[in-house]
Amino acid sequence: MITVRHRPLDLHLRHTFRLSRGASDVRHNLLVELEHEGRVGLGEAAPIPRYAQDRDSSAAVVETMVGRLGDLRAFRDAARAAAVDGQEAAQAAVDMALHDLAGKRMGVPLYELLGFDPRAAPATSYTIGLDTPEVVERKVHEAGAYEILKVKMGSEEDRAVLETVRDVTDRRLLVDANEGWSLDGARERLEWLAGLNVELVEQPLPADRLEETRALRRESPLPLFADESVHRVEDIPRIASAFDGINIKLAKCGGIGEALRMIATARAHGMRVMLGCMVESSVGITAAAHLSPLVDYADLDGNLLIADDPFTGARIVDGRIVLPDAPGLGVEPRAAGSAAW
Ligand code: MG
């Protein structure tokens, strides 16, 4: 007998976070607890409004999915089998909780259950949202130990912002355009971004502009990574000739089981892999972090961007991800009064 509980998880951002699509200060996530045989597995839904998901739809889908779950020993694929189309954030929450339960049942941390080397966990990048050059410069200084910065682009001031960043730091730089550019605009920007020694560009064109992205890639001086253009494993063969790599997010793909399929499929297509996130607490971030030994880039800073993370889990030490050793996800409620990292 499995029982499900869920409750609102309101996460307040340290800085208003601007993308080319808009800005926000608070994220309305959902915490999911699955209880089975005296153990509790934790999961988190970070609904993506762009895909018609919100906290209420996620809560309803979680309940529907739990009613459909089969044998929990088949935890890798159980959430996929019970999924509701288009509700990947909810699917991811159930999937995380099932993986957490499995690790707790077997008494091993998730990375060990999956057979990964925790020492192979990479450095994580730290995201800097759209802002004025002055504010971006301040954020670069705040980013302290992080050796990789991911800068959001899509404003009139893009070039001034990037030049400011490059003036004040020689750290590795990734750029995320969040679908904000035209083909001609992308051509021009890629040239000067390459001159600033940027390492890759994520989602330069809108997701539906695949042919144009293919054309752009042929002449691009920088690798192009798909984010909005790739959701699930089935998308990868279609986009493989337009991008050099993909950004996998648990909330976008439906969880750990689907992410593992995507990583294997991307590798088979010769693509590089980034593991990204939404704004999430340490529940969702730690779930993704357990997969980070498999990937080239980890962009798992969603919990660093919030002021009120109620949990602890994966930590960042000198810019690198350190996985927790407790069974399952290894996520614990944050002790009252202890500072967020
Ligand atoms: Mg992105």
Instruction: Evaluate the radius of gyration.
Output: 19 Å
Helix content: 25-40%
SSE string: EEEHHHHEHEHEHEHEHEHHEHEEEEE
Number of DSSP helices?
A: 12
Number-wise, the strands total 15
**Helix and strand composition category:** alpha/beta
Shape: globular
Distance between the termini: 37 Å
Instruction: Give the bound compounds.
Output: magnesium ion
Give a quick account of the main beta sheet: strands, pairing sense, barrel closure: 8 strands, parallel
What fraction of the residues are assigned to beta strands by DSSP?
Answer: 15-25%
Q: pLDDT below 50 for ≥5 consecutive residues: which ranges?
A: none
Order the strands across the largest sheet as they lie in space: 4-5-6-7-8-9-10-11
Mean pLDDT value:
93
Quick rundown:
The chain is built from 12 helices and 15 strands. It is of the alpha/beta class and 341 residues long.
Give a description of the structure.
By secondary structure, the chain is an alpha/beta fold. The protein has twelve helices and 15 strands. The strands form four sheets. Strands 4-5-6-7-8-9-10-11 form an eight-stranded parallel β-sheet. Helix 8 links the parallel strand 7 (198-202) and strand 8 (224-226). The longest helix has 19 residues, at 88-106. Magnesium ion binds at residues 176, 178, 202-203, 227, 247.
